[in-house]
């Protein structure tokens, strides 16, 4: 059972990637629907298995590390797998209606989409540094391709820029990996951790960690390395932007977080933790402020991602040198933030896409009257916004609550300011959009009305993000299930 | 999951589901929307009524589950929550009736009623919340659901008011969140409990608890419009009349006041708060707010603005009552929660009627309106006298109990504040009453509409008349069981018993 | 039967419920004819229910108790009777303009006035007092003239301040007494630490209504501008509500307060003489009467002062005060009503009319064999300086005599002003009936009304004969002075 699920999870995306490569957009769409259904079921099944029996270590092909591929199937990983399935399916579904099938280059959307999905699953489950790298590269390349699908010169320019950043990040990461490998002779995270625990930490090895984190931070667009993100996310097609903001940046962060939690205790330092946290804090404030200043709707949403990603980096200071309970609280908070941001941001980009399609302009001030004639899309946008603001009862709030608790308990009260100010600033940019849409200066409905399913998809995502807050406890309980090594081979 | 567990949930869901259904309805479904609205409001009254009866018999209704690790979502019906829930259920029905008439033929009704129901759901949640965490949940939900109502008209003025409203309330919300989180970190998840938690608390905690108290009151004080956090309120009156009525009478300002009540009573506990010396400062703020609001109201020429400043002043009564830390003063403050609601909603309904029927917004345009709209004007007059505290209306009961309470604990200066505020109230309400009844109409009404035989649409006329009657009854029959005063006495007795 | 709950409630509620007649414009004529009916149940209660009954209304306000004792019975009789006659008068007097509004405020004021007399708990008493005050505003400004509005503003401003003083005083008293019943207040106030403050607040608060000097500014403005039947009840009945307020709250009979007695005597003297002096300067007949009311209230204040100063006399003094109230109320009502009467064309009728206009006035001055004579004698009887132990008591007889002279002067001034102002013409039946019944009740019915039982029992008729000269000479002196003044005035022309 488990074996089948794992196989399904890992190979469906790759198989579908190849399949869709062979057909045009319209056929690819039909094929993809099927694949999404399979993927969804598999993810759900795996999640259910882990939720009932606990996590396990899975060795691909039965070979032991370092030769084989080692997969960690724990509660957190399956939760992210499921999240990926939900968000990617939503985006894929949206894209299948949203994208114009008559543009020739759109046929590449599906293969790229599936490669991306495969890469994501690889990252969530990856147990050693090199596999993680492979997954990450897969994601990056697919993402760059997707951005380039925008088609115009601007899109290509943004894609190139994105590619540069991604490569640079990979390079730094790889360098760090090489240093680790040189020191310990293993790439398995568990192995490295075990060695670190047993032996004296060689001086200078912190540099490896810093290098890896630097590379990953660049890929995650942490301030001040965020320059590539807004153009790329802003210019891409809306479903693509949603995928990028919701999932892609989370992949690199996920790796960074795992490195930190496993190795940070030995290789990190208080100063490093605080520095990363501070960068995250600045990202929250600066990103929100820039989001508030944007005139284009999608740029607002893109800068909002910069800000929201900033929150994630509070993980570093809040887990370094604190008690396990506080660390757990912080981890739970960050996990919730990842999930709720993924859902909310996807919802926001998709509904922003709908709005732009309806008003025929991507400017915020073109939204006047939308509230009257397109309340549904606006409502999804708003609900997603509520989660970004961290207002109850959304997942964003639950995350913020846990982070507040962790900051208070660890005595690092300065993060309170970031958390609260960030919420207020995000309210500022969300409500700016709302306000524009409430201007009631026309009695004629001159808007294009997107099809019902286009409107429903972001609504579902937004509602999930809302429900996450109410259901945070059960969701978190799956994530923290005990991990049993060696089972399920 | 017995029925008594689920009762609070049902009470919440009636308006929540109504809101969802209404959002889904097409703009044209006028009749169906009205039916749903009224049915939900009626159902809620029944549910709340059943719970009130049960609570009076000593039954408990509670629903709880863990939402976030270490933080519970608790809905609970106790005597205090029923005071607020009863008020909001009752006034929701009336306001819905009024709003149906008020928004006849205007655009965006679906949106309006959807958020309107959401707003009431939040209010119900605030009433039923069993701990600060849950309270905060609904408190912020209220902010969000009222924003679209405030900016409903979509004019630049409305949008500006909405922005201001958000700046104030969201900032207040952030401060509140900080305080709640801090408190939570300090002492864990605290359910509201009669008599409070901090009766014999470790003196080393006094310092942080004091700071948290100040933060809590600041966060809540924004909505309760305590000076100097009141700036949003007078501007928010650009909203349509039913919204202003709801905002001022039950929803927003009361949410703040109710929160302060919960914090002082059931988190800190009156005695502990007094022992830590937290209440004197609060009393001074409230007293200042009372006088300040009344004084500012004197200078307003726009009717709704005058009413708005009056609200600032009146809501501070509730807070002041709490700070009198004797059972009588507390009774006065609590009962004003209901009384002020009924009185202020009457006044706003009437102001809306003048605006909608005659196009009158300014006070000096009201000359002779009593003859044209006697029903509305009678209601307005009663409301105004109630606000002044003229007996035997509801406002008098408040003033009397609060005054007695103040004297009982030797805070005589409070009586002076009450008297001064009454004088100011008289000074800004009586001229309006004079204009209504005794001034001759000297110009045509700015924008008159006719509704056949009645002075205005029946939808608009009945709600203020009903609330006016309620206000009179709340005063005259104050000593009858289940009157606001008797209910509050029950609450206070239960608080004191522990 | 008449003291039963339904009937008492009817007596108070009838005027309140009558407001429903204002729902339709077409009912306003019917409402006009209902005005005299409104106080009738209350009159029946006053006449037939006897005194010392109580009615508990536990659900009302903060727990209600209504009832009538000997003192209140007199107030009730006066109030009901005067409102009844004035109601009859109003039928003829009122014009159709704003008729509905007038009737509503009339009924509300009446309800307040009746209710406050019967209320024995603080909350209802204060409620009815406020109702009367605020509804009375509607009567004052009814004419809608600039003058009326100004009078109304002053009335309202002072009334609200007065209400607040009362509220504060009552709050403190109730707090000390631990009871919401009026009868428990005096004892509590008597022993209060801040007795001075409570008493000051109550004296001033009720003093506004009673037209105490310096608190009286509204009175000469408001009484004259109101429609005549309203002026009559304002000056005849409502002004007494302030007095009743004093009588039921201040610590009479509990403790002797000579200092307060002295102070109040001074205030009363200023009111009695100063009011008269100012009244003499007035040209409008109703203004003269308004100042006369201030002057008369000053005289009553003297009695209040005496009662306050010597606790053992307070019961008797109360009875005399009640008598005086009854007498003054009826006479003043009649006088006010007469200002709206037109003189008949025929010579004899004219003289008869003058006579009946003047007689209640003469009664005020204490002409023998009038109600005033009895009141004056009784007052003299109780204010004998020998029994009263406070400094200024010695001046009381002189003050009373001066008061009588001043009163008579004012009456001459009134008649003079009235003569200058009077129209010749016909009066509608309503006017005739109202004025006649007021005059008759002042001159004749007074003697059949149940008098306060605390009054010293005396063969009043014989006493009047015996004291005729002492009663008459102030009247004559005043008449002489008036004659001189008239001569001077004539010569100047």
Automatic annotation (TrEMBL), chain A:
Record GO terms (molecular function): NADH dehydrogenase (ubiquinone) activity
Localization per record: Cell membrane; Membrane
Keyword entries, A-Z: Cell membrane, Membrane, Transmembrane, Transmembrane helix
GO biological process: one example: ATP synthesis coupled electron transport
Topology in membrane: Multi-pass membrane protein
Domain NADH:quinone oxidoreductase/Mrp antiporter transmembrane: 127-421
Pfam families, sorted: Proton_antipo_M
TM segment ranges: 6-23, 30-50, 76-96, 108-126, 132-150, 162-181, 201-222, 242-261, 267-289, 301-322, 342-361, 373-393, 413-434, 454-472
Record's GO cellular component terms: plasma membrane
InterPro entries (alphabetical): CPA3_Na-H_Antiporter_D, NADH_UbQ_OxRdtase, ND/Mrp_TM
Family of the protein in this entry: Belongs to the CPA3 antiporters (TC 2.A.63) subunit D family.
Protein name, entry field: Hydrogenase 4 subunit B
TrEMBL record, chain B:
Cell compartment(s), UniProt: Cell membrane; Membrane
Membrane-spanning residues: 6-26, 38-59, 79-100, 112-139, 165-188, 209-233, 245-265, 277-295, 315-338, 378-401, 413-438, 459-480
Pfam assignment, any one: Proton_antipo_M
Coiled-coil ranges from the UniProt annotation: none
Gene Ontology CC terms: plasma membrane
Topological category with respect to the lipid bilayer: Multi-pass membrane protein
Stretch forming the signal peptide: none
Keyword line: Cell membrane, Membrane, Transmembrane, Transmembrane helix
InterPro entries in the cross-refs: CPA3_Na-H_Antiporter_D, ND/Mrp_TM, Proton_antipo_N
Superkingdom in the source lineage: Bacteria
Record-annotated NADH:quinone oxidoreductase/Mrp antiporter transmembrane domain positions: 129-424
Domain NADH-Ubiquinone oxidoreductase (complex I) chain 5 N-terminal as annotated: residue spans: 71-113
Main location (coarse class): membrane
UniProt record similarity statement: Belongs to the CPA3 antiporters (TC 2.A.63) subunit D family.
Protein name, per record: Proton-conducting membrane transporter
Source organism (scientific name): Marinobacter halophilus
Lineage of origin: Bacteria, Pseudomonadati, Pseudomonadota, Gammaproteobacteria, Pseudomonadales
From TrEMBL, chain C:
One MF annotation (Gene Ontology) recorded for this entry: NADH dehydrogenase (ubiquinone) activity
Any one GO CC term of the record: plasma membrane
Keyword Methyltransferase: no
Membrane topology: Multi-pass membrane protein
NADH:quinone oxidoreductase/Mrp antiporter transmembrane domain ranges (all copies): 119-377
InterPro entries documented for this protein: ComplexI-like_HydComp (IPR052175), NADH_UbQ_OxRdtase (IPR003918), ND/Mrp_TM (IPR001750)
Pfam families in the record: Proton_antipo_M
UniProt-annotated location(s): Cell membrane; Membrane
TM ranges: 6-23, 35-54, 74-94, 101-119, 125-142, 154-176, 196-219, 231-253, 259-281, 288-309, 315-339, 351-374, 394-418, 430-449, 469-489
GO biological process, one term: ATP synthesis coupled electron transport
Main location: membrane
Keywords: Cell membrane, Membrane, Oxidoreductase, Transmembrane, Transmembrane helix
Name listed for the protein in its UniProt record: NADH:quinone oxidoreductase/Mrp antiporter transmembrane domain-containing protein
